[in-house]
Each structure stands twice: as structure tokens, then as C-alpha cells.
Amino acid sequence: MAVESGADGIIVSNYRGRQLDHASATLDVLTEIVAAVDGRILVHFDGRVRRGSDIFKAIALGANFVWIGRPALWGLAVAGQQGVVRVLEILENEFKDCMTLAGCTDIQQLGLGGRNWLKRISSADEDSLSRGSKL
């Protein structure tokens, strides 16, 4: 619908989802939405982003942008502008740690909705299973 309406992007959000007891989590529907828009518009992700690993997962699953709300506001409330800067530093460091642990040296390696990276890890899992490894 967003693509057909001429939108430049879509925001995947379950804003204040705690009010919607049975709504799907944003991360759970992200890949479906990324597949549906098929690169024709930008996908923004918003929903309980609290750690750098949340940012990593959203990008790996296809988000072009990840919104950060509450952590930045918490930093602002605690220490003003410096608090926001510190929160962003923490998120960036956590994101970089995830990249390192995933064997990615460049964010572009997460590209194509994470299919590059996800394909690499799923084939590694298949190799492990074929050798009889137990996780």
C-alpha cells in the first residue's frame, strides 16, 4: 500500500505496543515487510531499540534506518546533551561488537536485507550439522 501510494519510505513500528496485547513485535514482522517493499522504498525500524544488538538485528533483517527513542531521552534526562552523546557512544560500541562477533567488517556486508550475512551464517550452520557437530 505504501509503495503504491508513492511513499518514499515506511516506518515499521508498534508504537506503544504494550496497549496492543496481541500485536506482533516489530522485529517479528520486519523481514516480511522488507520482502513486500522489495527495495522500492526505504524501511525505517522503530520498536524497543535498547541496545546495539537491536540495531544490528534490525539492519541484518533489512531496515535501512533504525530509530532510537527512549535511550536517548533517558540520557538527556540524566546528563543533558552529554548523556545523549554517551548513550549513542554505548549503542555504537555495542553495534560494533556485534559486527565483530558476526565476522562483518563493513555494514554493507549486512546488505540486501541481511541476506548476505544471514546466508553466510545459515550455510555455516548447515556445514556444522553435516559434520555432526552438536551445538
UniProtKB/TrEMBL annotation:
User: Does the keyword field hold Ribonucleoprotein?
Assistant: no
Q: Which PROSITE patterns match?
A: FMN_HYDROXY_ACID_DH_2 (PS51349)
Cofactor(s) listed: FMN
SUPFAM superfamilies the record matches: FMN-linked oxidoreductases
> Is ATP-binding set as a keyword in this record?
no
**Gene3D superfamilies reported for this sequence:** Aldolase class I (3.20.20.70)
Residues annotated as domain FMN hydroxy acid dehydrogenase: 1-120
This protein's superkingdom?
Eukaryota
Going by the UniProt record, its keywords in alphabetical order are: Flavoprotein, FMN, Oxidoreductase
Q: Pfam family example for this protein?
A: FMN_dh
Record's protein name: FMN hydroxy acid dehydrogenase domain-containing protein
Organism field = Cyphellophora europaea (strain CBS 101466) (Phialophora europaea)
